[in-house]
Specification:
The complex is a heterodimer of chains A (202) and B (89).
Chain A: H1 3-13, H2 25-51, H3 53-60, H4 65-90, H5 97-124, H6 133-165, H7 171-200
Chain B: H1 3-27, H2 33-55, H3 63-87
Classes of the chains: A mainly alpha (202), B mainly alpha (89).
Chain lengths: 202, 89
């Protein structure tokens, strides 16, 4: 008799839906740390732009906004593919996950190809990291970001390999997919802000 | 609504925001730069929030982590807009 009320009390205090840290704590330390470093870059860029408005506005018009937009679409699409793949893996239906990770990897390759075209055009026109303050920021920040894209693509390649065979993955491999996904989304998130600052703000 | 459908709808929203902010960025003319800057940065950080909440799955994360993430976006938005308003001669 006495155990019944105790049980219902236990049910009442239990949270309705258990909240959990996506991936693991370590990836959030890395992601938020990386995002904070980029926040300092963003602020420094805006400060320099405020000090040299004419020079920055003139250099801004040398960038191809359509190439920047294509790259944004590529990364947003790759993020959708990764989010769908991780959702499949977490719900135990990982049969199409490797194809989705593959599609995301292809979008990442497309991003690098577009960047290569863009940088080649700029180099031919004599725009390099030393040609102006604006291009110093542009090449440094998009270069560091490109490094993140390459690291993300290595991670995606590993995830394709991990999800290729097994129908249902164990807890450690599921977490690997989730952690790799969070890193890739951070690469996308940082680009979204870089796109706004370099291509859209005048 | 299934999770896949929600993720796809977020993607459509992100693309719509990208094209809207691109149009605002391309079309800005004299006298409109300050407002355009504010709107473009605001849209970018709202997109970042959509990526965080839906793709990084922060919507089901502990409140503390969400506060840190939202706090980051709020601080970045405020600092960038303040710099634009104060430093611009």
């Amino acid at each position: 008799m006495s155990s019944a009320p105790a049980r219902s009390a236990e049910v009442l205090v239990r949270p309705p839906a258990a909240r959990r840290i996506p991936g693991e704590t370590g990836i959030w330390v890395l992601v938020l740390g990386d995002m904070s470093v980029f926040a300092l870059f963003f602020a420094t860029f805006m400060y320099s732009r405020g000090r040299n408005p004419q020079a920055f506005a003139a250099a801004h018009s040398d960038l191809s906004a359509s190439l920047g937009t294509i790259n944004t679409v590529l990364l947003l699409t790759s993020s959708l593919m990764v989010a769908l793949a991780v959702n499949d893996v977490m719900s135990g239906e990982s049969h199409r996950a490797s194809r989705l990770f593959g599609a995301a990897l292809a979008c990442g390759g497309g991003f690098i190809a577009v960047k290569a075209v863009e940088w080649t055009h700029l180099f031919i026109e004599g725009r390099t990291a030393t040609s102006s303050g604006y291009f110093q920021f542009y090449f440094m920040l998009t270069g560091i970001h490109l490094g993140h894209v390459v690291i993300g693509m290595v991670v995606l390649s590993r995830l394709i390999f991990v999800t290729r065979r097994a129908q249902e993955l164990g807890p450690s491999r599921r977490m690997l997919c989730e952690v790799g996904g969070i890193f890739w989304h951070m690469v996308d998130l940082l680009w979204v802000v870089l796109f706004a600052l370099f291509y859209l703000v005048r | 609504m299934t999770v896949s459908r929600r993720l796809a709808l977020v993607w459509i929203g992100l693309l719509a925001l990208t094209f809207s902010s691109a149009v605002i960025g391309f079309e800005q003319r004299g006298g409109f730069e300050a407002q355009a800057t504010l709107i473009v940065i605001g849209i970018a950080l709202f997109k970042a929030r959509l990526i965080g909440m839906h793709y990084m799955d922060l919507r089901s994360a502990p409140v503390a982590l969400r506060i840190v993430f939202d706090g980051y976006l709020f601080v970045v938005f405020t600092v960038l807009v303040m710099i634009d308003l104060v430093v611009r001669p």
